[in-house]
Amino acid sequence: MLPRKSIIPEEFAFSPALVSPIPRKPVFRDRVNKARFIAKNGACNLSHKNIREQGRFLQDVVTTLVDLKWRFTMVIFSMTFLCSWLLFAMFWWLVAFAHGDLDYNRKSGVEQCVTHVKSFTSAFLFSIEVQVTIGFGTRMITEQCPTAIAVLILQNIIGLIINAVMLGCIFMKTAQSHRRAETLIFSRHAVIAVRNNRLCFMIRVGDLRKSMIINAVVRLQVVRKTTTPEGEVIPIHQIDVQTESAVAGNSIFLLAPLVISHVIDKDSPLYDLSAMELQCSDLEVIVILEGVVETTGISTQARTSYVTEEIQWGHRFVPIVTEEEGVYSVDYSKFGNTVKVATPRCSARELDEKPSILIQTLQKSELSHQNSLRKRNSMRRNNSMRKSNSMRRNNSALSVPKVQFLTPEGGPNLAVT
């Protein structure tokens, strides 16, 4: 979401003079456009190749069916029933063939195992009627064949198992936990600004539904390529990042949109990065929101990530929660809007070493704010004076002139028209 000009006060305008007075040689590196590890919608950008033990997926058939796409699930669902009907149709045909029901020259007094089963087509129809329990009609089992009774029991048991598995898979597929995560939203950009005299990395999370996420937990991870002192290259090095509520176990009460803050201290992987170096780095910040759905009790997880191009240095989120007639209102149109604020461009390490940088930055911000207020007040006074002068000129132009008339006697007569 792009910030709107109408909600950005002029006093928060960032001045180019708000830079670190400490001369520091920036480190420039050619940033390679690498693929992000987690997409903005939470999907993992990972491809599995050369898996030799494919049989492991068949050991967990239910999970495999749930993970498949809908078109494959429906094909498997239909083929499973069709194959079971055909298999038991073959059994019923063999029963009829062994009993001699298919013999057209049989005596009329001998009763059939299954009435009106005289071909494979009729045996297939009878198999469907038995497994789906839609009614036998004219085809029914008699007490002449114990084998037919055993086949009937076996088909009913197998049919119930197939129904339970297939319907369970479809229910699990329609009620997957990631469906609830579609209404958990994150801000499009992350920001870095000063909060409580410390540099902080901040994002905003929100829930669009009124049903809450119970025991919501937010975790941050920084993923980047690192090299160990021994020369080992780790392409995906995951570093846990503590949020501001680390003492409470990162548990949040997600009733309204919240700003999740990470203090950039000496234990943070962002501690040595300045604004310039951040743009040259190839790190990625992954945000994971986990919790339990209040209505179903199913655990859900929502994910997103921020690359360096999506991290705004010197910005903060605008307020979106207001109180209107005794009710707190949330304006989601401003969910991702940010404004510029006075923020040193140096790293958090330099701020800890020289706290005067922050004091000077805040003082310059205050002077800039006062100057902008003076300019705005002077412009208002000038505009009011121009309006008053123009109104005076208009009034003078509209004033009624005096006209002199002469009477027939020659005497002057003054009249106003």
Automatic annotation (TrEMBL):
Keywords: Ion channel, Ion transport, Membrane, Phosphoprotein, Potassium, Potassium transport, Transmembrane, Transmembrane helix, Transport, Voltage-gated channel. GO terms for biological process: nervous system development; potassium ion import across plasma membrane; regulation of monoatomic ion transmembrane transport. This is ATP-sensitive inward rectifier potassium channel 8-like protein. One of its GO terms (cellular component) is plasma membrane. One of its GO terms (molecular function) is ATP-activated inward rectifier potassium channel activity. It catalyses: K(+)(in) = K(+)(out). Belongs to the inward rectifier-type potassium channel (TC 1.A.2.1) family. It is a multi-pass membrane protein. It is found in: Membrane. It comes from Labeo rohita (Indian major carp). Pfam families: IRK (PF01007), IRK_C (PF17655).
